[in-house]
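Lab meeting minutes (informal)
Scribe: AK
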Amino acid sequence: MAAYAALVSLMNIIDAIEHHHSPPISLKKLQIQSLTKSVTFLLEFLKSYKSPYSDSDEADPLEMRIVDAAYAAEDVIESRIADKIQLRRYEATKIRRFFNFFRCHKDPIKLYQDLQNVIKEMDRIKIVAMETNTEKVVVLRDEQRTFNVSSTTGKNSCGKIVISNHVLYGIMEKLVADEPSRQVIPIVEMGGIATNKDKETISERSEEELGLELYQYLSGRSSLKFALWMQESADNVSPESSSPSKDALLEEACRKYEEATRLCPTLNDAYYNWAIAISDRAKMRGRTKEAEEFWKQATKNYEKAVQLNWNSPQALNNWGLALQELSAIVPAREKQTIVKTAIGKFRAAIQLQFDFHRAIYNLGTVLYGLAEDISRTGGHATAKEVSPEELYSQAAIYIAAAHALKPNYSVYTSALKLVRSMLPLPYLKVGYLTAPPVGNPVAPHSDWKNTQFVLNHEGLQQLSKPEDRYSSLSLSSRSVDSPTSKPVIRIYVADIVSVSACADLTLPPGAGLCIDTTHGPVYLVAESWESLDGWLDAIRLVYTIFARGKSDVLAGIIIA
C-alpha cells in the first residue's frame, strides 16, 4: 500500500512539471522518460504482486526499497525548488524584501546527477521485480543502497512519511489487529499517536478505507507542491512578460490549494500558503469591494491554518496583516473591531516567539494607526478604552523593541525616529500598578497601594514619589535604600524567570501580574486587563532584548 502510494505521488509530481506552462525547474527529457517508464512498470507490478511477508511480522524488503527510491526521487526534485518557495512566506508587508538575500541557487548539474542515481536504483528494482513471481521471490535484506541524495522536504531515504495521527494509528491498528501479543512502539518522528476517540473510530475502518485515506493524503501533498510552484512562478512574472499574468497564475495556485485541502483537510501549510496567494491577489485590486472579499477569504484561511497548527507565529502575524489591510477597506463602523482583532493576532504571535521582531514591529504600526484614527476623528476614550496618547506610547514601545532586536533594519530605524519622542523618556514604560508593602506580599488588601512604576533596560522599579520619574534612576548599582528613603520594589531584568497573568484570591481585585524571579515571585495588580497586556509585553520584551545581548541598544534609545 505504501509503495503504491509513493509511486503515485512521484508520478503526480512528474506530470505536474511536464504539463506546467512555466515549470519551476527543468528536467532532462531522457531522464523523465526513463523514470516514468520504471514507475509505470512498478505500478503495474504492484497491482498483481502478492507479498510473501503479508502474514509475517516483517516489512516486505522489496516494497520498502520501492518506497525508498520513490521518495528519494521526490527529494531530488523538491530540494531544487525548496529554497525558492519557503522564505517568501514571511509576509511582513514593509520588510519582506529584506529576506531576498536568503535565496540560494543550487547547481543544476547536481540535480541531474542525483536524479540519475535514483533512476539507476529504479532500474535495479525493476530487474528484481521482473524476476519475481508468486513462486519465487527475490529477498533483498540489508542491501547497501547505491544512491545518495540529501533531503530538504521532511521525508528521508528510509521510506518514512509524515502523515496525520489518525491515519498513522489506523495503519498501526491493522498491523496488530489479529495478534494481541504484538505491539507497535511509537517513534518520536512519527509525530504522536491518536486519541482514544480516534482509536474507537479507526478500529471500525477497513484496510481499503485506510488505504484510500493515505492515498488522499499523498495526493493532497502533491497538489500542495504544484500550487507552491505556481505561486513561485507568479512571483517571477515580469510586467513585460507575454506569459500568463501573475493574477492568472495565482488563481490557478488557489485552485490547487483548494484541491489539496479537499483531498486532505488537515494540511495546515496548504491553508497558510493559500491565504498568502489570496492576499497577493487582493493587493492587486487596491481598495475595492473585490479586494475586501479576497482579504476576508485570506483571514478565514489563516484562521484555519492556526486551528490546525496553533504553534505558528508566522501564520498569526500574517493573519494580523490581512486584518489590518481589511480594516482599511471596510466601513468606518467596522474598522476598530477589526483593528483590535489584528492587535490580538500580533500579540499572540509575540507570545509564541518573544523575539519575533516582524510581529513586534507590525503591532507597533497597527497601534500607531489606531491612535491616528482616534485622534483624527476626535474620538474620546472612555474609562474602559485606551487614550490616543497611551496608544502612541505603546506603539513606540514595540517599534523601539523591534529596533533593539534588529538595529540594522533601516525600516525600523526610520520608524523609531518618528515615534521615539512618544516614549516616556528616560524610560521605556511608565504606569501605575497596585503593589503590596515591600517584604510583605500577603499584606491585607487595604495595605496595597496604587503607585507609579518605571521600566527601562535594567528592569522594573517602583517610584517612591511621582516626581522621581523625571530623573533617570539606575538599577544597576543594586544599592539598598537609605535609612531616610521609603523602601520600593525593584526587579532586575537579569533576575527574571517568567512573567505571566495570574488570578489569585489572595490578590486585590483586578488584573493580576506575577513576575517570578530568582528571589521568588513578585505579585502586582494592573489597572485593567488591557493595561496588563501592555505590562506583560513590555517586561517580556525587555527580558528578550537582554537575553539576546541587545540591552545596550535599548539603553541607547531611551537614555541618549
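Next up, CB showed the second protein from the same session:
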Amino acid sequence: MESRYDMLFIGEAGDASWLGAALGSAKAAVALEVMETRQIECEGVETRVAAAPPDVIVLGPTLPSPLSMARHLRDLSPRSQIVFVLPPERVERFRASLPFVSNLGAAWTVSNDATPDTLRSVLQEAASTSRQRANRVALYDRINLQLASRASTTESQARRSQLALSERYLATLLNQSPDAFLAVDRQGRLVAWNEAARQLFPIHSDDALGTDAVALFPEGCRDEINQLIDMALQGRMVRREVPLRMDAGEAIIHGDISVASVHDNNGEIISVSISARDITERRRVEEELRQLNETLEQRVAQAIAERVQAEDALRQAQKMEAIGQLSGGIAHDFNNMLSVVLGSLDLLSRRIGPAPQARRYVEAAMEGARRAAELTQRLLAFARQQSLKPEPLDANSLLAGMSEMLRRSLGADVRLETVFSGGLWRTCVDRNQLESAILNLAINARDAMPDGGRLTIETQNGFLDDRYAAAHPEVVPGQYVLIAVTDTGEGMPPEVMAKVFDPFFTTKEVGRGTGLGLSQVYGFVKQTGGHVKIYSEVGQGTTVKIYLPRYFSRGDEPIDAPAPAVVPLGEQHEVILVVEDEPAVRQFSVEALVELGYDVLEAHSATAALRLLDAHPEIVLLFTDVVMPDVNGRKLADEAKRRRPELKILFTTGYTRNAIVHNGVLDPGVELIGKPFTIDDLAAKIRKVLDAP
C-alpha cells in the first residue's frame, strides 16, 4: 500500500488477531484500531467514528445485527467503506441481499476462512475506494468553489438535504407503520423488512436476510404465498386473507396481505413487496356478528317462547288464585249453612225418640251433611284458608307409619315401595294435612293403574336454586324436603296436566271422584310455603314431587346454597348427541351443552338418533330421555351400544331415580340426571360420565 490507511475493526479479539496476521507486511501502511464487542457500549463507537472517520470499517463475524450497525455507521461517516467478515455459509445470501438494504450503499463481504491474499486484496480495494472517494469529493468541492456561484451551490446542497430528509421521513414512516412490510427478490429471498414485520413474523435477527421468505408463513399456506409472489413478478397486484400464525392446526393470527412488484428506473421488475395486516380481531368481531345474525331468529323465537311461558305461568297462578278466593268464599258460606243443617239434625235426633224409620232418615241426612263438610274442608285447603297446625316432623317417620294404611288403600294389585333418604332434613307442616295429601296422591295413583302396577314413594333433601325459581315465579329459592310419589299408570297428556290442580277437574268416570284431591294437595303445599311439580308421560306413568321447606330448629343455622364451583367445560371436539321428544326440553339441553363448550347434535326420536350415530363417528356421548314414544331411551341405548361399544350413555327423566330403576326401566348403576336440572348440574354430570374409565 502506497498510502497509509486508517482501519477500524469491531468484533472479538481473536478475529482481530486473525485480521492482523492476514495483513502481514502491509501493516506498515495500515493504522489498525481494534474495538472489541464488549467495548461498544461503554466507549461508544459512534463517538469514535464521528470524531475521526476511518477509511475502512471491518465488522467481525460474531457481531449481533451487523446490518443495523453498518447502516448507523454509514450515516456517521458516508465515505468509510464497510467490510463484513462472515462465516462461509452466510456469504452468498448476505451478498445477494445487500443491494436491497437502504442507507448502506456499496459494501464488501469476505469469508472468515479466506486466504490472507484474498483478505488483503479486499481490504486494499475498500481502502483505496474510500481514499479515492475522499479525494474526489475534495476535488469536486474545489471545482464547485471555483465554477459555481455561492447561490447555486447552496441550492444544490438544499436539494440534496431535502432528498436525504425525505428518505429519512420515508424510512421512519415505514418503521412506524402498524402494517408489516417485507421485500423479496426475484428468487424469493428475504432482503428487507420493517419493525412491524419483526413483531408479526418469526424474524429474530439479521440472519433472516437471504432466507426463503415463504418460510415465514405457516406451512399450510406456503404454496398460496408462492403463487402470489409469482403473480406479482408478472406485474399483477394481488390481495388475500391468509393465516399468519398457526397453533395445533388452527389459525391464531389472521392476516390481510397485499403482494406487488417493485420496478427499477427502466421499468424492469426487480423485487416484490409484501404488506401484511393483522386482522385477527376484525375476524373475531365479524364472526361474532355473523353468529348473532344467524341466531337472531332463534333468539327472538326463544325470547317470545320464554315470554309466552311466563305469561302462561302468570295466568295459571292468577287463575288458581281467583278460583281459590272464590272457593274459599263459597266454602265459608257453605260451612255456615252446614252448621245450621248439622245442628238441626242433631237436635232432631235427640227428640224423635226410638222411631227407627225416622232415625234412619235423620242419620242418612247427617251422613250427607258430614260428606259435604269434608268437601268444604277440601275447598278451604285449595284456597289456602284452612286452619293448619304445623309442627316439626320427620317425613321418613311419618311415611313409615302410613305404610300399612297405604297398602290397604292400594289393594293387592299395586305394589308399594318406599325409598327413604338417610340424613333427611325435618320440615314443619300440619301432620294430618300431609298424611291426607300423601293418601290422595296414592289413591290417584291406584286409580291410574286399573290393571295393577308399582307405586314408589321416595324422600330426599333438595335445593331449588335461583334459575329454577326464575322459571317458576311462585318458588322461593332455598332448601326443601322432597317427597316424590311415582306410579306406573296410564300417564297424562300435556293438556290434562295443565288442569290437574283445578278444583272439580277429574278424568275419572262419574261417581268415582270429586276432582278435589289434587286441588287439596296443591292448596296445602302452597299454604305451607312449598312447591309441587308434576311430571307425566302417556302410557308410562306419573311422578308428583312435593317440596316442603326445610325446618331449622333453634340453634340450627341455615346452610347457604353451595358456593358456585368452577363449572367443568367441554374439551375440544367432544360431540354429544341429545335425544328428547319434547322440543322445549331438547332446546334447553342443546343450548346448555353448547354454552358448556361441547359440539352438539340433536334428534327428536330414536330412529333419527341412530341415523346420526352412524353418520357421525365423532359422537362420544348419547344424552337421551328415558321415556319417549315408539322406542324408549333404554332400547335406544342398547342398540347404540351394540353399534358403538365405546359410546358413553347418560339418561334423563322426570321420574325419580329409584322409581325408574325399581320399575325395571333402567338397570342399577346406569348414569341418570333427573329433571329439572340446572346447567351446573348438567356440566358436572356430563364431565363425570365422559371422564369415567
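CB comment: The mean pLDDT is 77.
No objections, moving on.
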